[in-house]
């Protein structure tokens, strides 16, 4: 743990230090003070907004209640700002929403917890979170400090991993690891399950799954009869997650999981990619599954696809048009990128998302989400 930064605070007249852990990449707070059950929500919220972190020494459940109270106060601020002015464009609304989310995360992340070297929390009524912390952090060799809000994320991810996500196309569950995008939006999985396989796969039954994540699309292709699939990812957690899911489903003989930046060596009859859908900069490492700065992965996939397709093969790009409704990318720009990569559109399958946020009228991005369509673009290399 010597690579982790150190935070400093004064407690009972003594200077104290501890390692700082943050999987979201948040830097250690510069000002830390001790807080306990006597701290009011108003005082805690004010100090957090001013940049002072609160290291909790009271009852664990009281810390949770305090964080909830701070969250209610954080929710009041955007409502007051919204009443003052309305964003002029969808892109402006998106950027303001991201700024508000970032500020909220910073403020709520200021309530800190102490952890012992075995991931236990030395507070009254603290739950056993050792397995959730081990899954996300790995082992620890000394005490450390982390935010209560991050711990809640770790516990939520642990429950997802333990219980899994039901995938109707597989008739089975996929178990996402911490930091790996969970396939809770089933429409993109259904598209891959329903799209007609290229005729070439009847004689050349090999596919690539680019950016495999949990391995769910590789599993779907394997269940559809593709005999050999190479699934790639750069992230260690994703690679471990995909291997574990595929082993649980009994598909390791068909699917090989390899670490690679986009494409493996060789060519395939089918190349599938579901890149992050929004061309914006992630505010933490955990957001890379959602945000693709400068459309790096999307353009990397398109520009490398033709060279990795067998003659007569297809590339399947699964992507939402949410970025178009947010004013972050136009349909013309997407089509121009496809053309510039030496590709043609052989067909497209569309589906309307059905996740809960589509009908959430309180969401600042509701208009864009309500209009969203997820598409599977069937791409082929241009003929000479």
From TrEMBL:
GO molecular function: nucleic acid binding; protein-glutamine N-methyltransferase activity
Record bears the keyword Methyltransferase: yes
Annotated protein name in UniProt: Methylase
GO BP term, pick one: methylation
PANTHER family: HEMK METHYLTRANSFERASE, MTRF1L RELEASE FACTOR GLUTAMINE METHYLTRANSFERASE
Organism: Ferrigenium kumadai
Keywords, alphabetical: Methyltransferase, S-adenosyl-L-methionine, Transferase
Pfam families: MTS
Residue intervals of the Methyltransferase small domain: 173-319
Keyword Lipoprotein carried by entry: no
Classification via InterPro entries: DNA_methylase_N6_adenine_CS (IPR002052), N5-glutamine_MTase (IPR050320), SAM-dependent_MTases_sf (IPR029063), Small_mtfrase_dom (IPR007848)
SUPFAM superfamilies in the cross-refs: S-adenosyl-L-methionine-dependent methyltransferases
Record Gene3D superfamilies: Vaccinia Virus protein VP39 (3.40.50.150)
